[in-house]
Structure formats: structure tokens, C-alpha cells
Design goal:
Helix 1 runs parallel beside helix 6. 33% of the residues lie in helices and 31% in strands. It is built from ten helices and 16 strands. It is α/β, with parallel strands linked by helices and 341 residues long. Strands 1, 2, 6, 7, 8, 9, 15 and 16 form an eight-stranded mixed beta sheet that branches. The radius of gyration is 20 Å and the shape is globular.
Length: 341
């Protein structure tokens, strides 16, 4: 069966791409849209509002806390953050998708044909949004996924008196090479850890982290997060979101970038579908767009390298020094602008 576009993966990136394309589109995922979250589901409130997904918002937070082993810095966010419901957010994005959805497992790729356990499907434009595994990218290049550049994140949601802070913890006693977070969602709170340790070690550390608050793990979800940017194009395949390593190092944020790059990719593909440009031109235009932003990923990678080597007390001093006045306002403006929808 032939389509204008096939998109593999129906999470943030895949839905962002699909929402920009009109034509004969096939969206494939091994699970139903909006099930089995692997994200902490937090981003700038303005992003969710602009996408028309406000109904998915669970909490809006205007203040941030940054904890180290020795101190805590508080600051007001220039733009509120929010924590959202994964299913509701994905369903909101899916409203902009006008095509076919197929629940199937991807088995491979042959030329312009995607192989699945539900049949084989062809398209001129093919997009890999399958997450860190990059199912289609890996089918073309065996060593495409570098496991040394993968964070692992785990999160649980428990009944806990919620405050009104988006809280982050940079403390080697909690997690050695990574950070922890605490996000309030109504009468519950999400606790999570992300780092280079394996899943079992992080789950054990999450148990210890929760014990400080007198709580126990209430089920966990999570997964790998690529924190090194990858090639945005392999042969004739577009890659978006975690497939292309679009999450930023240090912060691990990937929701906003998946949508930012996904919408751009979708607009380029729409130009190909409408025959305004050819596929080769579209692939180059998308690759150039992503590569133009590579410096931001390298900036956060450099900060990550530095922070992991700084004494924890020095990280706390830096947070206090830059967490007030014009430095924090300047950094927040830049942080927003670097992937502004």
C-alpha cells in the first residue's frame, strides 16, 4: 500500500510531524496513541497552550527550586512551567492529524517500504520518530544508536502534599551522574531520577529518595533518553525527537524540541507532497535546519561535562550566583528562544 508519508512512532515527535501534513498519511506505533508514557511530561505552559492542549495540564508552576547537597536556590520563572497528562496531551496533538493510524510492530525497512507485522507499506517520505531505538535509522545503519550517550529516567507518582515549585535536585547522594526532580500534580507528586546509571540502580535510588518524604514507589515508568544529537537524515529517512537525539544534555528536556523539530519536518514534507520541492531538497533543508541548532546541544553538553566535574558545593554557589537578577532572566529568555514554537 502506498502513501504520501509514513511516520513511525506516535508520541510527541510523530504527532507533531503528522499534524503539519495534509495528504495520504500513515502513522504507525506499536501501542495506542497516548499510552505507556516514558516522559516526565513537563514543559513551558505556553507550548501546551499554543498547541491547544490546555485540557491536559495538571498543574501550572511559576516558581523553581534548585537543590544541591548544601543549599537550595529559588527563583521565579519568567514563563510558567506546567506538568501535563501524557494521554490527554497526545490526544490533543492527534486532533490535528488527518490520516490513518496503524497499531503494529515495525520489523524493518527496504528501500521506500516499511515492514511491519501487519503488512508492508510504501511512501515517498518516511519519518523515524520511534524514540531512542530509532527503529528505521538502525535498520539502515547498525551502529546508529550509541548506548554510551543514553540517559535512563525513572519516575513514580504518589500521594503527597504538593507545593507550588518545580523542584530539581543535583546531589550525588541521590544520583551520581544525573539529577532528581519533584513535580506537583494536584494532590499527587511525581518523583523521578535521570542519569547514566542503569535502571535498577536508579530505581533503588528512587526508593531512597522517596523515603526522605516517607513515601514508597507506586509503580514506575521511564526509559532511555539520548543526550547526544544524532544525524537528522539517513539516506532518504527523516529522524525527529529522540530518534535524532533532540533532547538537550544536562536538563534532559525533550518535549519541546520534539515538537519544534517535528513541526518543521512536517512543513517541509508538506512542501514535498505538494511538489513545491523534491525529496532530496527537503531532506537537505531539514538537515540544515537541525544542524543550525547543533550549537545549542553542544552548549548544554559542555555544561553537563563541567557540572559533573565540579564539586557539589561549587554547583550550589553557581546556582545562587546566576539564579537571581538579570543573569537568570537572560538565561530564561535564551532557553525559551532556542526551541520556540
Amino acid at each position: 500500500m502506498c502513501y504520501d508519508t509514513i511516520i513511525a512512532g506516535a508520541s510527541f515527535a510523530g504527532l507533531a510531524v503528522a499534524g503539519q501534513i495534509k495528504g495520504k498519511i500513515l502513522l504507525i506505533d506499536r501501542k495506542d496513541i497516548g499510552t505507556i508514557p516514558t516522559s516526565a511530561c513537563a514543559t513551558l505552559y505556553g507550548v501546551v497552550k499554543k498547541l491547544g492542549c490546555e485540557d491536559s495540564v495538571l498543574s501550572i508552576l511559576k516558581k523553581v527550586k534548585f537543590h544541591t547537597a548544601s543549599c537550595c536556590t529559588e527563583y521565579k520563572a519568567m514563563e510558567p512551567f506546567c506538568v501535563f497528562d501524557y494521554h490527554g496531551f497526545c490526544q490533543g496533538l492527534a486532533k490535528h492529524f488527518e490520516g490513518e493510524f496503524l497499531k503494529a510492530n515495525i520489523k524493518g525497512l527496504e528501500g521506500d517500504t516499511v515492514l511491519t507485522d501487519k503488512g508492508d507499506f510504501s511512501a515517498k517520505c518516511i519519518v523515524d520518530c520511534t524514540g531512542w531505538r530509532a527503529a528505521l535509522g538502525t535498520a539502515l545503519k547498525d551502529d546508529f544508536v550509541n548506548k554510551k550517550s543514553l540517559y535512563f529516567g525513572v519516575e513514580t507518582e504518589v500521594d503527597c502534599d504538593a507545593d507550588d515549585f518545580l523542584s530539581f535536585f543535583w546531589d550525588p547522594e541521590i544520583v551520581k551522574l544525573g539529577y532528581a526532580w519533584k513535580f506537583p500534580v494536584g494532590k499527587k507528586t511525581r518523583f523521578g531520577l535521570g542519569g547514566y546509571e542503569n535502571g535498577k540502580a536508579l530505581k533503588d535510588n528512587l526508593t531512597k529518595f522517596l523515603s526522605v518524604y516517607g513515601k514508597e514507589i507506586n509503580g514506575v515508568h521511564g526509559g532511555f533518553i539520548p543526550v547526544k544529537i544524532r544525524k537528522p537524515v539517513i539516506e532518504k529517512i527523516f529522524l525527529v525527537g529522540d530518534s535524532a537525539g533532540h533532547a538537550w544534555p544536562l536538563t534532559g528536556e525533550g518535549v519541546r524540541q520534539a515538537i519544534y523539530y517535528g513541526q518543521k519536518c512536517g512543513r517541509i514534507i508538506q512542501s514535498i507532497v505538494e511538489k513545491e520541492i523534491d525529496l532530496v531538497t527537503g531532506l537537505k533543508e531539514y538537515a540544515d535546519f537541525v544542524n543550525k541548532h547543533r550549537c545549542y546541544h553542544e552548549f548544554f553538553s559542555g555544561l553537563q561535562w563541567l557540572f559533573f566535574r565540579m564539586p557539589n558545593c561549587a554547583v550550589g554557589m553557581a546556582a545562587k550566583l546566576f539564579g537571581r537578577g538579570w543573569p537568570i532572566r537572560f538565561m530564561q529568555r535564551k532557553y525559551k528562544k532556542w526551541a520556540e514554537l
